[in-house]
Amino acid sequence: MTVRQALRTRDRRVPEQTGPERETVDDTVSIARRLDLVAAMGQLPRAQRAAVVLRYFYDTSVADVAATLAVKTGIVKAQLHQGRHRLASLLAEEVDDVAR
Question: CATH assignment of 45-100, given 3.40.50.150, 1.10.10.10, 3.40.630.30, 3.30.70.1250?
Fold first, then answer.
């Protein structure tokens, strides 16, 4: 399975909203956090981004991520480690920018 195939087969359920009052401050904050995450993910190198997406967004095992990407499991673990640390750094910068 390729990354593209995994993305195509993703379950795309949309949560139901009960009405216009559904959007609250919490929803707005949640949307802002998701947008920050998407922006940070876009700054990761392609291999790290693919590993992070498959492992954490699609809940794929490390072995399956390795098979999908045609690399060894050690490579996937390293990419995940580096990707997590890079995301944490990027998202911390976003928080610092907002606090200023």
Answer: 1.10.10.10
